[in-house]
């Protein structure tokens, strides 16, 4: 079939080559902006409906339009092809289809591995591999260990403390800030807000950024409660950690109190509150979400007001919270919910909670100075901007006129064909008021039984102008078009549309608003759905905005400019010319803020500015700052300071400066109109980080940066036409992200008989049902849910971890296989962010990559690079602070990221202790749980179980040696991966399998990052689904694949199959079943330890994986696991349980108290008061203690005699508010002789002991026990009390 003039191929459904994509890109520049806008909208509509496998565009598209769609399809990971010829030419978009015909990989175990397995089979009982796991209820008592950490059951660092019951707040201590509070716009609405809360249980406050709603609304409630002697307790959520801390500090200062009294905060890894005093708690959305999953909503029972702030940001946890609160508020009549946000769809949220009557909206204006605004056409005209490409474009005027005439004729045809019929002025608005029982009956009959006679009568009434074709049922609001969609009748729908039926009308069903397309999708009527979408495409391909408002010269300049540039890229040269204009013609003390999509644009613009002939020579007259989360710039805080007089500040930033930050001296804003946004395809598991147009709400936020402190100017680098086509508000995060964690929380929150998918439909703008369904399927494969969507034992434990479910699963596997230290580090890194940073100078990219490769130690693993970088960073902390800074700077690492990773490790270890998986002493202590930590092959096996199904195969048959999986046949390594160190890296990989953290789309290809090469044995043992029940040995797990040469196939999933001999597969299946049972046994009873046969099996599995890696040529890496360490050697890495490794010559005693008795110098015992229980957690996490002034003289041993008699220093932590000892810690004697300001400590117990329990040993309470020394006998008895196992009730 001949090729179109526009470059649109015939019925070619194959992969597009790089030449095809380049040719298409050259053509798309000829497409006008208004056509691009509408075609982009149509593509987005298709992508928003994952249930549709394909969609065909109208045949009215020109060849150039089709070329544009082909090009956009490659960017979005879609397939596209055209069929037909001439006027019948049509283009079809399709999604990636799973490939199930992959060739099976051969697996053979080495002779050494087979001998080891045979030796195991000879020693274990014959039925060892066929019996079920031992039920915890029937275990002999000698196999059970006391739950020494039982007191921690139910304690979660990622949930809000139960805290006090509501009570009357104390009066504020001073009015020093009253005059400043009165200047805030929100102050004048105080009485209105309080009156609304008296009358309504839910209200919505729409306040501009800076109006003071976050700090003042909670204070209004507190002050009113104090005045009226009402009992209150308030929880206020904010999206970011830093906001929770800074806002709570501000509110505490305004009240004249210390933070942690009436006002506190609780965020992940950090908290400051009093369990007896705090009545206002600021927290992140995730903290409150996890708190709601506690039994019987204990948190809500003690709360009177819940404030959800910044809901306009539409993060997934906030949207999910709204659906939860809608159900919860019905159960607690005294609860008040306040929603607060800035630029957002207040109608959507108000109607979600029942409309203005149930959820009134209060409008609060901000303090914004006037901002002069220029759009792209104004900027081009003002600067008389013209390039060579623009002049070349104008030389083709004649061809442009012909093309424009074609488009105009095409648009006129569409307008004529889609013009709705007139029905003598009968409007749908009038019919909404008039109730027609006879018409209701006709719609109901068509809906329920597909009655053709009822439909014919309805058509007769429409033709007679007796009723509007858009009449909505008086009770449920459905139209006849919706009924036709539900019945799957395309002919009926087509006739209704010709009569003028409106596709955009929505019915109100329970809590959902659904259009005809939504009803068709909900009832799986995909053919009707595709027909309705095609009709929508036909009527959408019309200009929405014309250029009449522009004069002819301005419009021509804009048109020639848009055709001469690549709209996918930001025009940095135009920004450079704008900066020059601003710098020459305005006050140099006025700063400039430039919004750019990402790292490349920021560093490239900085380079252009510094090397420009006009701006570069004025280098001393300006200073440039870059704001980006992954740029290694230690002076980012300096961007908020004013430079010296006469020096202009230029800030290059991503959207981080939209609303989170306020830079006081900004007067000029240059807005590229673009931002990078991450989206996730639930079907293929591919993540896209792409640059796209922002929403109108974001435009307003960026413009407002120029008018925050004085009158300003904003330059938008997009046309008025583009602005009008932008979405009103940002796309909610919940519709473009993975839903596995939220699905797990939903299951713990909703009623058992309610499906997870139905609950998600209650969210204001719900994700696609198929995305929820896919997430539930993954959780089922993971073993977190059973086939009936009920929580399994694994799922219940995963809820306790503040992690994505697959990362929580890694911790359970690490405990079972005794390789906790490396997995704990890797889980912390993956859950937070990559510690390797982008260099601020793009010329250093290669150097930064070499540093990362060195950390990988030739292991062919990015995870090894993460692990070794963290371990070396810990070592650098042993020296001075400058050493650590140099280490991070020289290796392009983020110290802030590692500090966070370190804290996450501590939190996760604490949760493992609280759940009973980790003990202080004996079996399951840190020494035992790191027995296999140095076996990198076993650690990789655990990573396989963790990251599945994120697996790629190596296609050695392909000439280009590519990676592949079930959806993609051409995958490459991400440039940041250490596996890209060689040009032909894939061909030199010794194994056939790669696991990865994330797959991203770049252009028409897919890239994998966070990669590790693994053996086929690791895939065979750890990949695949996890069974929540004991595996049966009789199950048929493999089939004969070749009758002539005995070979058998084990199918892990639809595309991963392994071929082996029957003997090999039987051995592998036995080990797989046993792995499954080991996990189940530990989940049933975390305090149960394995017997000798089970331990031997784990060691054999570890040995097999090690041998297979050795045969493949993987190097042996030492020091993979580095726990436990000597506390004195590196106290920052000391076990958070307080356990310190004993020297082999010191004997095997594990009791801290016993070691004291054996020592030459006896310890001393002191009591120190703490003002907050959370200080114990801080000490556990940091391992560092600032010696208090009241015991300084008694603590230090600086004299010769003192040093000779210096013993360990034992501190019992006393919390007077609850009359409890809340922990015990030890300082080794050598640190008492150094006189350093901060000393390393071991918190060896955080058990809570009530004062009544120590009275019998002769302890007498005094008015103040802070700094009290105890005699040796009493201290020794209390030490034993802290070390005694504590049984859970």
Termini, distance in Å?
78 Å
**Given the structure, what is the number of helices?**
46
Strands in their spatial order, largest beta sheet: 8-7-9-6-10-11-5-12
Helix fraction, binned, reads: 25-40%
Q: Overall 3D geometry?
A: globular
Find the structural class using helix and strand composition.
alpha/beta
Low-confidence stretches: 1-7, 133-157, 409-433, 542-549, 1032-1036, 1124-1160
State which percent range the strand residues make up: 5-15%
Q: What gyration radius follows from the Cα positions, in whole Å?
A: 34 Å
Summarize the structure.
ANK repeats lie at residues 476-508. The chain has 1289 residues and is an alpha/beta fold. The protein contains 46 helices and 38 strands.
Describe the structure.
With 1289 residues, the chain is α/β, with parallel strands linked by helices. It is 40% helix and 15% strand. It is built from 46 helices and 38 strands. The strands form eight sheets. Strands 8-7-9-6-10-11-5-12 form an eight-stranded mixed beta sheet, sandwiched between helices. The longest helix has 23 residues, at 1062-1084. The protein is globular and about 105 Å long. The termini are far apart. Mean pLDDT is 77; it is low at 1-7, 133-157, 409-433, 542-549, 1032-1036 and 1124-1160. Residues 194-362 form the Helicase ATP-binding domain. This is ATP-dependent RNA helicase YTHDC2. Keywords: ANK repeat, ATP-binding, Nucleotide-binding. ANK repeats lie at residues 476-508. It holds the Pfam family HA2_C.
């Amino acid at each position: 079939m001949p090729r179109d003039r526009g470059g649109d191929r015939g019925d070619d459904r194959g992969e597009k080559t790089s030449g095809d994509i380049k040719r298409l890109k050259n053509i798309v520049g000829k497409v006008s902006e208004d056509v691009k806008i509408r075609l982009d909208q149509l593509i987005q509509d298709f992508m928003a409906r994952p249930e549709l496998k394909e969609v065909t565009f109208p045949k009215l598209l020109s060849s150039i339009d089709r070329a544009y769609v082909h090009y956009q399809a490659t960017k979005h990971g879609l397939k596209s092809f055209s069929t037909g010829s001439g006027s019948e030419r049509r283009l079809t978009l399709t999604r990636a289809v799973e490939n199930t015909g992959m060739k099976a990989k051969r697996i053979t175990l080495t002779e050494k591995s087979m001998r080891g397995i045979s030796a195991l089979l000879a020693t274990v009982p014959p039925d060892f591999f066929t019996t079920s796991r031992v039920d915890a209820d029937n275990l002999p008592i000698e196999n059970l260990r006391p739950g020494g950490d039982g007191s921690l059951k139910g304690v979660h660092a990622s949930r809000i403390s139960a805290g006090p019951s509501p009570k009357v707040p104390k009066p504020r201590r001073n009015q020093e800030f009253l005059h400043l509070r009165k200047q805030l716009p929100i102050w004048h609405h105080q009485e209105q807000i309080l009156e609304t809360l008296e009358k309504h249980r839910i209200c919505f406050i729409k306040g501009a950024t800076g109006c003071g709603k976050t700090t003042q609304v909670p204070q209004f409630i507190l002050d009113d409660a104090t005045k009226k002697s009402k009992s209150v307790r308030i929880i206020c959520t904010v999206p970011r950690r830093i906001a929770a801390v800074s806002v709570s500090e501000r509110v505490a200062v305004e009240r004249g109190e210390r933070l942690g009294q009436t006002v506190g905060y609780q965020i992940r890894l950090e908290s400051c509150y009093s369990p007896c005093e705090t009545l206002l708690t600021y927290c992140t959305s995730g903290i409150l979400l996890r708190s709601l999953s506690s039994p019987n909503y204990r948190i809500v029972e003690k709360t009177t007001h819940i404030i959800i702030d910044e809901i306009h940001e539409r993060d997934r946890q906030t949207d999910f919270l709204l659906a939860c609160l809608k159900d919860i508020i019905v159960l607690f009549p005294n609860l008040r919910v306040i929603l607060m946000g800035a630029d957002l769809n207040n109608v959507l949220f108000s109607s979600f909670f029942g409309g203005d009557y149930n959820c009134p909206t209060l409008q609060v204006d901000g303090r914004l100075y006037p901002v002069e605004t220029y759009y792209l056409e104004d900027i081009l005209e003002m600067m008389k901007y013209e390039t060579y490409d623009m002049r070349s474009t104008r030389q083709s005027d004649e061809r442009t006129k012909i093309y424009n005439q074609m488009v105009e004729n095409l648009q006129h045809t569409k307008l004529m064909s889609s013009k709705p019929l007139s029905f003598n002025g009968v409007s749908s608005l009038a019919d909404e008021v008039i109730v027609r029982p006879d018409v209701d009956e006709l719609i109901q009959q068509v809906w329920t039984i597909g009655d053709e006679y009822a439909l014919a009568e309805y058509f007769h009434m429409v033709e007679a102008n007796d009723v509007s074709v858009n009449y909505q049922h008086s009770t449920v609001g459905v139209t006849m078009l919706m009924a036709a969609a539900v019945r799957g009748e395309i002919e009926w729908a087509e006739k209704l549309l010709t009569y003028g039926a409106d596709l955009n009308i929505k019915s109100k069903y329970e809590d959902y608003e659904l259009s005809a397309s939504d009803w068709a999708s909900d009832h799986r009527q995909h053919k009707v759905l595709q027909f309705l979408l095609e009709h929508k495409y036909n009527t959408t391909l019309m200009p929405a905005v014309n250029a009449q408002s522009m004069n002819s010269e301005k419009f021509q300049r804009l048109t020639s400019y848009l055709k001469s540039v690549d709209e996918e890229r930001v025009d940095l040269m135009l920004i450079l010319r704008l900066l020059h204009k601003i710098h020459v013609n305005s006050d140099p003390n006025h700063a400039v803020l430039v919004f750019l999509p990402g790292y490349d644009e920021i560093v490239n613009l900085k380079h252009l500015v510094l090397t420009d002939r006009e701006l570069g020579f004025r280098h001393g007259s300006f200073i440039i700052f870059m704001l980006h989360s992954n740029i290694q710039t230690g002076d980012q805080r300096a961007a908020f300071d004013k430079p010296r007089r006469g020096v202009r500040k230029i800030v290059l930033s991503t959207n981080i400066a939209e609303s989170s930050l306020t830079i006081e001296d900004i007067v000029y804003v240059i807005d590229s109109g673009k931002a990078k946004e991450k989206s996730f395809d639930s079907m293929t598991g591919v993540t896209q980080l792409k640059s796209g147009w922002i929403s109108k709400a974001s435009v307003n936020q960026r413009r407002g940066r120029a008018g925050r402190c004085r009158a300003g100017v904003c330059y938008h680098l997009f046309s008025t036409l583009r602005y009008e086509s932008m979405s009103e508000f940002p796309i909610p995060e919940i519709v473009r992200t993975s839903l596995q964690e939220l699905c797990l929380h939903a299951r713990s929150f909703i009623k058992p008989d309610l499906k997870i998918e139905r609950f998600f439909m209650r969210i204001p703008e719900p994700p696609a049902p198929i995305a929820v369904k896919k997430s539930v399927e993954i959780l089922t494969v993971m073993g977190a849910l059973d086939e009936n969507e009920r929580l399994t034992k694994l799922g219940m434990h995963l809820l306790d971890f503040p992690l994505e479910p697959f990362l929580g699963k890694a911790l359970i596997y690490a405990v079972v296989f005794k390789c906790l230290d490396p997995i704990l580090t890797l889980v912390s890194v993956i859950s937070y962010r990559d510690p390797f940073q982008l260099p601020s100078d793009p010329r250093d990219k290669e150097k930064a990559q070499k540093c990362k490769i060195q950390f990988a130690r030739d292991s062919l693993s990015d995870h090894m690079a993460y692990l070794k970088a963290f371990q070396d960073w810990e070592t650098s902390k042993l020296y001075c602070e400058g050493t650590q800074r140099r280490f991070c700077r020289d290796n392009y690492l983020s110290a802030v990221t590692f500090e966070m990773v370190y804290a996450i490790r501590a939190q996760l270890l604490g949760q493992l202790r609280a759940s009973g998986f980790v003990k202080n002493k004996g079996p399951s202590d840190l020494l035992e749980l790191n027995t296999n930590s140095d076996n990198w092959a076993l650690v990789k096996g655990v990573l396989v179980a963790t990251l599945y199904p994120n697996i790629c195969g190596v296609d050695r048959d392909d000439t280009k040696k590519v990676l592949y999986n079930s959806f993609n046949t051409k995958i490459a390594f991400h440039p940041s991966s250490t596996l890209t160190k060689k040009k032909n890296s894939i061909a030199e990989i010794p194994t056939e399998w790669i696991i990865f953290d994330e797959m991203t789309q770049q252009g028409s290809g897919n890239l994998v990052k966070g990669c590790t090469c693994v053996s086929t044995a690791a895939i065979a043992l750890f990949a695949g689904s996890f069974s929540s029940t004991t595996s049966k040995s009789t199950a048929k797990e493999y089939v004969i694949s070749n009758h002539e040469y005995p070979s058998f196939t084990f199918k892990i999933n639809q595309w991963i199959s392994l071929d082996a001999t029957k003997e090999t597969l039987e051995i592998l299946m036995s080990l797989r079943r046993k792995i499954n049972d080991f996990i189940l046994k530990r989940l049933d009873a975390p305090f149960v330890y394995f017997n000798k046969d089970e331990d031997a099996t784990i060691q054999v599995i570890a040995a097999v994986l090690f041998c297979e890696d050795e045969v493949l040529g993987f190097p042996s890496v030492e020091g993979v696991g580095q726990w436990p360490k000597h506390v004195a050697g590196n106290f920052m890495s000391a076990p958070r349980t307080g356990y310190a490794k004993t020297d082999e010559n010191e004997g095997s005693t594990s009791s801290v108290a016993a070691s004291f008795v054996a020592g030459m110098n006896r310890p001393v015992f002191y009591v120190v008061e703490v003002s907050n229980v959370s200080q114990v957690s801080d000490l556990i996490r940091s391992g560092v203690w600032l010696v208090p002034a009241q015991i300084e003289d008694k603590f230090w041993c600086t004299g010769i005699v003192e040093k000779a008699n210096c013993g360990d220093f034992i501190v019992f932590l006393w919390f007077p508010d609850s009359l409890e000892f809340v922990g015990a810690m030890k300082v080794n004697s050598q640190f008492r002789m150094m006189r350093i300001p901060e000393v390393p400590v071991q918190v060896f117990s955080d058990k809570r002991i009530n004062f009544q329990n120590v009275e019998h040993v002769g302890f007498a309470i005094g008015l103040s026990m802070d700094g009290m020394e105890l005699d040796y006998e009493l201290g020794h008895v209390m030490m034993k009390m802290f070390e005694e196992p504590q049984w859970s009730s």
